Amino acid sequence: MITNIGVFEILRTRDRIRKIMKNCRKNSAEQKRLPVASDAPLFRELRIAHFDQKPRARLTVFLRGKGCSWAEKTGGCTFCGFWSATNMGGVMASEDFLEQIRNGLSNLSVREAEAWELAIYNDGSLLDESELPFHTLIEMIQIAKSLHGFRRLVLECKASDVSDSKVSRLVKHLGERELLLAMGYESSNPLVRDLCINKGFTEGAFNRAIEILRSHNAIATALVIVKPPFLTDDEALVEVVSSIQQLDKLGLHRIDLEITTIQEFTLVELLWKKGLFQAPSRVFLERMLSAIVQLAHRTTVFVSPTKYSPELLDKPTDEVHDLIDCLNLGKGLPEPFYIRPPDYLANGSLNDVELIRRINEYLNIVEGVKSTSSLFRINGHFVADQVSLDVKVSNS
Ligand code: SF4
Question: What pTM was computed for the model?
Answer without folding.
Answer: 0.88
